[in-house]
């Protein structure tokens, strides 16, 4: 990593003048600064950070926190009120894709225009045009006016131009929220390839994407840097603050362990298997941590999380591909009319691999839980085969519906486990095969 930052931001501030009435603008111009007819709104105030070559830095924050204003100034489409911005290399921005297209021009003409704005000569664009057209895959529409395009086609063409200008710095602002799944996967393959060598500034409301893609994260709140550090830590704190803003501060950020039924001694499931090859997916469990970082309103408290075998016995080891049950127990501290319990399995980057909750199964017949009673959820499934590495399970209990609920207790990393060996050939997880056949005809 170079010692000179690819993006240097120092004391960056942006102030907007807010006029209550249209005539105040005219009065302000006539008074030449002797009186003030506007209110000041500081979209950014004293923001400072560096992004070094090869880094992928995530920017998170709620709507109105200043994320888009920051990116526009880095891309030189907006002038700062105060502060310094320095960039080294060609900057390509995936902001509002297609917003710079002329709707009367054809797709081909807009390619040449946008490529020129990004620093390519006409000869360079000619050489790359076949690749741009192949990546966009919009067929004969390339010679039709852009005003006839669907939003998905606009995204395809705009992203394709960006992907072929040999940028040194890529600025991404929720650009992939539109488009079909296949093209999104193509874009993600390009982004992941670019991130291996290029410098990326990535803005998203999806904390899982920030944790998966980024090496550092910056949390903006009301135009100021609230926290900067590892994506895992920053995203967890942001998520906690988000829920507190929606439903008020909980009783505590780390809830005390409530009394729970005595846990039986786990046993080693490996002894039941005859297959002793080094490809077996042995998963070593670490017991439930009641002091794991957590937050919530405190109307319920998760007291135990454990894996069980087919006989209902606690497990200390799991073999990938076998049937297991994840049991989550919680104590209701207040009356819950529609409790929801759920879990997420995440890899070491915080990327969600799989998970579920009880809402859909009980949406028509909720199971009310009076205060002082334990409520238990059990999820039975076939444990996927996992690539070697560390994993964690996040669990939560809420009350309400899937879309409107109160988060009572959310536990990060309630159980941590490690996949010691694996037969996963590729991908994040391996699915047990019913059969694999190879034959000649």
Summarize the structure in words.
This protein is α+β, with helices and mostly antiparallel strands. The chain has nine helices and 21 strands. Helix 4 crosses helix 5 (151-162). The longest helix is centred in the middle third of the chain and has 17 residues, at 231-247. The termini are far apart. Residues 252-275 have low confidence and may be disordered.
| Helical content band | 10-25%
- Helices and strands: which structural class? alpha+beta
Describe the oligomeric state of these chains in a short phrase. Answer: single chain
How many helices does DSSP assign?
A: 9
Distance between the termini: 54 Å
H/E element order? EHEEHEEHHHEHEHEEHEEEEEEEHEEEEE
Largest sheet: 7 strands, antiparallel
Low-confidence stretches: 252-275
The geometry reads as: globular
Strand content: 25-35%
Write down the overall mean pLDDT: 84
**Gyration radius, rounded:** 26 Å
How many extended strands? Answer: 21
Topology diagram in text:
Blueprint lengths: L6 E12 L3 H10 L7 E13 L4 E5 L6 H8 L7 E6 L3 E4 L12 H11 L4 H15 L14 H12 L6 E5 L7 H15 L3 E5 L3 H7 L2 E6 L2 E6 L1 H17 L34 E4 L8 E2 L4 E9 L8 E3 L3 E10 L6 E9 L4 E6 L1 H4 L11 E9 L2 E2 L2 E12 L4 E15 L9 E2 L11
Parallel strand pairs: 3-7, 3-8, 5-6, 6-7
Antiparallel strand pairs: 1-2, 1-4, 8-9, 10-13, 10-20, 11-20, 12-14, 14-17, 15-16, 15-19, 18-21, 19-20
Helix pairs in contact: 3-5, 4-5, 7-8
């Amino acid at each position: 990593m170079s010692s000179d930052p690819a993006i240097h931001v120092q004391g960056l501030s942006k102030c907007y003048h807010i006029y209550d009435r249209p005539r105040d603008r005219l009065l302000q111009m006539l008074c030449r600064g002797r009186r003030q007819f506007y209110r000041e709104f500081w979209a950014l105030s004293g923001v400072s950070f560096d992004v070094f070559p090869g880094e992928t830095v995530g920017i998170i924050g709620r709507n109105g926190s200043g994320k888009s204003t920051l990116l526009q100034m880095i891309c030189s489409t907006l002038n700062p009120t105060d502060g310094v911005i320095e960039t080294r290399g060609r900057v390509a921005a995936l902001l509002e894709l297609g917003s710079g297209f002329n709707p009367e021009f054809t797709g081909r003409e807009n390619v040449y225009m946008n490529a020129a704005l990004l620093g390519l000569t006409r000869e360079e664009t000619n050489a790359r045009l076949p690749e741009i057209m192949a990546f966009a895959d919009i067929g004969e529409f390339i010679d039709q006016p852009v005003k006839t395009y669907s939003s998905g086609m606009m995204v395809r063409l705009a992203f394709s131009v960006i992907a072929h200008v040999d940028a040194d710095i890529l600025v991404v602002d929720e650009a992939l929220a539109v488009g079909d799944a296949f093209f999104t996967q193509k874009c993600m393959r390009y982004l992941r390839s670019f991130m291996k060598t290029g410098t990326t500034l990535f803005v998203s409301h999806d904390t899982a994407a920030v944790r998966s893609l980024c090496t550092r994260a910056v949390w903006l709140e009301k135009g100021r840097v609230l926290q900067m550090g590892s994506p895992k830590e920053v995203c967890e704190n942001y998520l906690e603050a988000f829920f507190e803003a929606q439903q008020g501060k909980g009783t505590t950020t780390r809830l005390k362990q409530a009394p729970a039924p005595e846990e039986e001694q786990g046993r080693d499931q490996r002894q039941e298997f005859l297959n002793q090859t080094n490809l077996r997916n042995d998963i070593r469990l670490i017991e439930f941590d009641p002091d794991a970082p957590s937050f919530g309103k405190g109307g319920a408290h998760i007291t135990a999380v454990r894996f069980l075998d087919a006989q209902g016995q606690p497990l200390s080891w799991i073999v990938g591909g076998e049937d297991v049950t994840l049991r989550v127990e919680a104590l209701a501290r207040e009356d819950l009319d529609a409790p929801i319990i759920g879990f997420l399995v995440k890899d070491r980057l915080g990327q969600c691999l799989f998970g579920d909750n009880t809402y859909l199964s009980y949406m028509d017949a909720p199971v009310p839980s009076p205060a002082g009673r334990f409520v238990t959820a059990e999820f039975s499934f076939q444990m996927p085969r996992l690539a070697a590495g560390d994993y964690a399970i996040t669990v939560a209990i809420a009350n309400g519906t899937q879309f409107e609920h109160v988060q009572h207790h959310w536990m990060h990393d309630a159980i941590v486990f490690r996949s010691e060996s694996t037969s996963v050939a590729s991908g994040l997880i391996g699915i047990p095969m019913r059969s694999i056949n190879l034959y000649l005809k």
